[in-house]
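Marked as duplicate of an earlier ticket. Keeping the data here for the record.
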Amino acid sequence: MLKKTLCLFLILQASTFLALEALSKTPEDLKVEAQRYYWGKTAKQDYKKALELYEQAARLGDPEAQFIAGGMYYTGKGTEPDLKRAFELLTVAAEQGKSSPEAQFALAEMYISGTVIPQNFVKALNLFTLSAEAGLKNAQNELGFMYYVGKGVEKDFNKAFEWFEKAAYQGDTLAQFNTGMIWYMGNSDKGGDLVKAYAWFSVAAAKGHQGATRFLEHIGPLLTDEEISTAQELSSKIFDEIEFPGNKQQ
C-alpha cells in the first residue's frame, strides 16, 4: 500500500512539474521546440508533436504560431484536416497581421464553399484579390472566374480576362483554358480571335486539359491552313515563354 501511494505521489509530482514547465515557456520557446520536430532538426521529425507545440503558442496569442498551426490543420499535417480550426487560427492570425497569399486563398475557398462558415462571395472576392495581387496563380484564376460570372462583384469580362491571362502566363492550366475561352467567346473589349483561342487551347491541351482538346477539334475546321499555322506558331511561343523562361531570346 505504501509503495502504491508513493508511486502515485511521484506521478502526480512529475505531472505537476511538467505542467508548470509548459506554463513557464514563452511562445518563442514553444515555436523553437516545434520547429525542431517540424523540420527534424536535432529531433526526430514529428508533425503531431510540432502541431501540439504550435497550438500551445497559438493559445498564448502568438500570430506566427496561429498561422502555422492553421496551415497544418488546413493541409492535415500532423492531424486529420480540420477546416473549422484552420479557419479560426488563420483568421485570428490575419487580424494580427500574419498571413500569406496561400492562407488568404484558403480562407477565400472556405467562404466560397460555405463548408465551415456561411457562404460570403464578397469576403471571398476580397481575399482572392489580396492573394492574386501577391502573385498566387490559383487565386488569380479564381478571381478571374468571379469577375466572369459576377460572384461578389458585377460581371466584368475585361477584369476576368486580365486575371485569367496573368495566371495563364504563370502556368495555371485552367487559366490557360479560360484565356482561350475569352478569345473564343469574344466577350471582352479585345473581341473574339479564333487564332488566339486556338493557341491558348493548344497550350492547355499540352498540359492535359481535355476540354481544351475538344475545343481544338471544334475550332480547327473553322480556320484556314494559314491561320492554323499562325496559331500553332503562337502557341509554341507562349508555351516556351511559360515552360522554358530561361531560353527566352533577348
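See parent ticket for discussion. Confidence is low (pLDDT under 50) at residues 16-20.
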